[in-house]
Design brief:
By secondary structure, the protein is an alpha+beta fold. It has one domain: Umud Fragment, subunit A. The chain is built from four helices and eight strands, in the order H-E-E-E-E-E-E-E-E-H-H-H. Strands 1, 2, 3, 4, 5, 6, 7 and 8 form an eight-stranded antiparallel β-sheet that branches.
Length: about 170
């Protein structure tokens, strides 16, 4: 007997957090439709994200990860700082469209790294050099506390000069 592949499981935020966490911890990739605007312009409401399991020790600055920022809630945000110490490995995450970081997230709360974004038939591989460069620029913006008013004109000029980035953000 052949079983059909599951293409969609509708669920609320808490159920999604529980299900995606369990699947990623079991070593399975998760593909889902993003909701929200905190990661615009890179991730848009309705984009489909492919998240692969990750060992938190391999997470790098600029990576976009799926984690639990609070019980019953999963979030996809960018790593803007990586901290070690007595408390263990921790990360500071921030949405690309958010002015302030989320706060500290323990390594155990990071379940997966966004590997790809699908939008309108296009496939954006997050491991490409252009995407790594973009991630680094966003980390610098966060560290230098460049708000939307000062950062966006500069970023727009830079992206306009680097066509390889403009195709991801237009």
């Amino acid at each position: 007997m052949l079983s059909a592949a599951v293409t969609s499981i509708p669920c609320d935020s808490a159920a999604f957090a529980e299900l995606s966490t369990a699947l990623l911890r079991a070593g399975k990739a998760v593909r889902f439709q993003a909701r929200g605007t905190s990661m615009r312009p890179l991730v848009r409401d309705g984009d489909v994200l492919l998240v692969r399991p990750v060992d938190a020790t391999t997470v790098q600055l600029g990576d976009v990860v799926l984690c639990s920022s609070e019980p019953g809630r999963a979030v996809v945000h960018r790593v803007v700082r990586k901290l070690g110490g007595r408390a263990g490995l921790r990360f500071v995450l921030q949405g690309d469209q958010v002015a302030q970081p989320d706060g500290l997230v323990a390594a155990a709360q990071v379940y997966g790294r966004v590997a790809a974004i699908e939008r309108a038939g296009a496939h954006i591989a997050m491991g490409e050099p252009a995407m790594r460069l973009l991630g680094g620029l966003v980390v610098l913006r966060s560290r230098w506390n460049l708000g939307r008013g000062r950062w966006y004109p500069l970023a727009s000029r830079l992206i306009g000069r680097l066509p390889v980035l403009s195709r991801y953000l237009s």
